[in-house]
Specification:
This protein is mainly alpha-helical. It is built from 13 helices and six strands. β5 and β6 form a beta hairpin.
């Protein structure tokens, strides 16, 4: 256990060192870099629910929305307004991130307890409905900006905070699933009926996976809110949940390294396609197709799934040194 802790400390130290060199980065590329980190957290958190526990969820954007709005409301109410801040801004910001994560975890518990006795498609529909309920509540909540959106947050999310949370999320998930207690998540995924026959409380493990996944999604939402400085309910719609699900499936369910790689690829790819139409050496039809970049993006996703149906990393997820 000492080695993973050492690697975590090294990763956080590298994040701190690298943050000193991000000042000169083009704002466009810096935005992509932070978005990659946030998407990695979202993908890793959903991978615990879908990849390691085998529960198909379409409501992860709802948990992200809870964390984003909760943390933004806390900083605007108790610490931050445009142009001013409390002396201990870092401490207040951290409390807001943690508070947003706790609010999302409470939402995960709220949806998990009554619904996780369901399985498969039924569970996916319930989580989708929950996400839409969250979006509807926010759209009608005046303290949260309602349809206007919520802005005015100070931009405290930076490279260090984002990737330090990435390192902590990856460490936490891997430590959990590699532990003796974490074997329960894998047992639920592999054969829920057999796990129940062995005396495993499958509902408890499914609820716990939802709560932990929701907490991390809430923290990611807090990072997002304090980087973009403006959030709107439409930013946490059904398509956002689908994006996160695609990252998990494309990376290989149950492979933490795979979903991290998929998060990087699926964040960079749409932005790369944005520039393809400017390449004058390309044939005209290709440039015309590239202008409709989401069509080309969807086509590339189809090709990737046809060529790698098991995901980018497939069966290369290792549990206790053995292939899962």
């Amino acid at each position: 256990m000492k080695k993973p802790k050492t690697l975590l400390l090294i990763a956080i130290a590298l994040c701190a060192a690298a943050s000193f060199f991000t000042g000169g980065i083009n704002p466009y590329y810096y935005d992509i870099l932070i978005t990659i980190g946030i998407n990695i957290i979202l993908a890793v958190s959903l991978n615990l629910v879908t990849g390691y526990t085998g529960q198909f969820s379409l409501g992860h954007a709802g948990f992200m929305a809870v964390g984003a709005y909760s943390s933004a409301w806390m900083t605007l109410t108790f610490g931050f307004v445009l142009g001013t801040s409390l002396p201990a801004t870092g401490g207040v910001y951290l409390i807001a991130l943690f508070g947003g994560g706790l609010a999302a975890a409470a939402a995960g518990l709220l949806v998990g307890v009554p619904s996780l006795r369901l399985r498969g498609d039924y569970l996916a529909i319930v989580t989708l409905g929950f996400s839409e309920i969250i979006k509807g509540v926010i759209q009608n909540a005046e303290p949260l900006g309602a349809q206007r959106g919520l802005g005015g947050m100070v931009q405290h999310t930076n490279f260090f905070w984002t990737y330090a949370v990435v390192a902590l999320a990856i460490y936490g998930i891997l430590t959990l699933v590699h532990s003796t207690y974490g074997s329960g998540f894998l047992a639920v995924r592999d054969d829920e009926i057999a796990a129940e026959a062995m005396g495993i409380n499958t509902t408890k493990y499914k609820v716990l996976a939802f709560v932990i996944g929701a907490f991390l999604a809430g923290v990611a939402g807090g990072l997002y809110a304090h980087f973009k400085q403006f959030i709107h309910p439409e930013g946490f719609n059904f398509l956002k949940s689908v994006d996160i699900v695609v990252m998990v499936i494309l990376g290989g369910m149950g492979s933490t390294a795979g979903v991290c790689l998929a998060a990087v690829i699926l964040t960079i790819l749409p932005e790369f396609l944005r520039t393809v139409s400017d390449y004058t050496w390309l044939p005209g039809p290709v440039r015309d197709l590239a202008e409709n970049r989401m069509i080309l993006y969807s086509l590339l996703l189809i090709i990737l799934m046809l060529t790698r149906p098991q995901g980018l990393f497939g069966k290369m997820a290792f549990i206790r040194g053995k292939k899962s």
